[in-house]
Design a protein that fits this description.
about 120 residues; five-stranded mixed beta sheet; globular; binds tetrahydrodeoxyuridine; alpha+beta; Cytidine Deaminase, domain 2
Length: about 120
Amino acid sequence: MTAEELLERADAAAANAYAPYSEYQVGAAVLARDGRVFAAANVENAAYPLGICAERAAIAKAASEGLKPGGVEAIAITASPCGGCRQWLHEWRFERVWFRRADGSVAEYAADDLLPDTWDLPS
Ligand code: THU
């Protein structure tokens, strides 16, 4: 699946965002290795910090259907991922992270390039 195709799925999900406070709609679409796509939008809450980003909602949706880190291939996001979401992208080991920059161009990174020297739980 191309970046454009997965971004289309993210755009469609963004239209369902529940974002009455920021009015900023974000969508994300996770491509699993078996070809399934899990798309989600940001969901805000009146207790602001409790809101969830689109990326985390999409990963939670994939996880709820049995996916594990490494079982995912790519994620497309309608905007640049925040710092907290980058930690999630790292944990889920996305090979490709595509997102739309503010100027409309599409960025491609490996998850680990978005968060150098990542913190990991000491083993
Ligand atoms: N948001 C996301 O969904 N993903 C990000 O990576 C950045 C921010 C959402 C959270 C909130 O609902 C809105 O954008 C404004 O911050």
